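Take the subject:
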Amino acid sequence: MPAVVLSLFLCVLTVAGCASIPMESQPKAIPQRNAGQPTQEIPEPELGLDPLTVVRNFVRNSAQPANDHAASRAYLSGRMRESWKPDPSLRVVKEEFSTVYAPESEQPDDPNERVVALRAVEVGRLAPDRSFIAGLEEYRKPVRVRRQPDGEWRIVDPPDSIVITESDFNDAYFQVPVYFFAPDSTALVSDLRYVVARPQSGLPSRVVDLLLSGPSDGLAGAVRNPLGDSAALDSNVTTGNDGALVVPLTGLGDEAVQERELMAAQVVRSLQHVTTSRVKLLSDGTPLVPGQAEWRPSDLPAYDTLSSPNAELPGLMTVNGRVRSLGSGSPIDGPAGSGALDVVSAAQAINGHQLAVVESIGDEVRLRIGDYGAPGQLVDLSGSRMTRPTWKPPVSKDDKSTEVWTVVDGEQVTRVQQDADGQWVTVPVNASELTDAGWISALRLSRDGSRAALVAGGKLVVASVVRTASGATLRAPRVLQEDRLSSVVDVDWIDHDTLVATTSSERVPVARVSVDGFQFDQYNTSNLTPPMRAVTAAPGRPIVVADSSGLWTAAEVGAVWVPHSHTSADAEPFYPG
């Protein structure tokens, strides 16, 4: 390599390492002076690469975000190495992508320049807030390559975004949930985000940066953030001499002890996936929570009890117009179990105290809500079809829920609330962002109440639930795994950030999907007879599905489905929530 080119390259690396923003730094967060990745010497590409290989290697080296993607910059021309400023998002594409020469009509007249067409299927992007946004589309980008004075081909017109394959993204970035709270309760809400995976020692710093940057855009307005917008780090996150991880916060103001305990829960729960150390929480040099400086996850209250059904509630099922117990198979007490109501579908509140029933009355279906075992109130709501009801969690474990959702005739998303007089009244939901989604055949509120999973037009959709004094809105809907899940029939929440969906497809009858759509796992198909009809799930519970022959259950993705002990050909199961 000519000396002048080598000198220019080393100069560019120096500038990139000092003046650019490291990939692990998050918007609005305080950058960590010592948490960045160590400077690495990035080798020059091997000699004699053709233009197609140069572009291909440029994409493959995007998996190394160190020093402002210096490994991929090495495939750019000398001037472009310094001036290239990709946008802060990353385009994640399927594993198989192609680099081919563009048609001859698009090629430059200069024989020392070639245009390479980069072609891929984009599955989503990593947004500037480090959340993954699913979205299936074709990616096409012409990339201009020029022969340099030394004879080597280098890119002179690179893509505006970093392009990275799914496997490379999985290797280079670490998925971590950061935690916020439901707006009106202490139910924890997880927000899946992605941080640079290496060096591993810097993971806690990067996770704290993410947490302090606030909720992702997709959850904005749907959660409460006790840490607030002014919380920051007073200095670096470090490991003390006693092995405790020290998180020195500032800007928290004079918050009450109860609020500071919620802040502690946010930090400790967010860090539990990247450290096993004790966490020492400080606010302006003193313990964040008076009387307790160090924390482990086991020191926190059981915030998840509000969003997890009690183990004593076995779940229910509708069979031939009646509601029966999943545990015993017997009809439940009251009109829903006796046959006095012609039950189409039903939902039990998460604490078991209430039941919502869609019943058939003549040519219509009606919604009835009340205490478990009681007739309940017939709500002023009717239609030819309604989705199975779904409950918003109560404010505390001792309260009853005051909100049920359903969808009438595939398009009218409706919230039914209990007013001050104890009457259940209907309130339309603003679902304008779902106008083009198609017929809505299922809707399940997350058990923390912050999100809704829907089956719309046969696709799996997740949206955030934003509640204000004027009503509720389904915001930022996103279609998940559109190419793999094209004939979805039902969905339920396994936990905070994981869904299970059933389809009418023989190829993928049951699948587990992360709430952001990036992770996908297909369940074992053994013993199932598609099409599937229904599914139910809950934290720590086996999955129960209904196919054309009856009910089947499995505890994990790879397990063989076994018949449920109270299977029935017409049964549709449901856990509380």
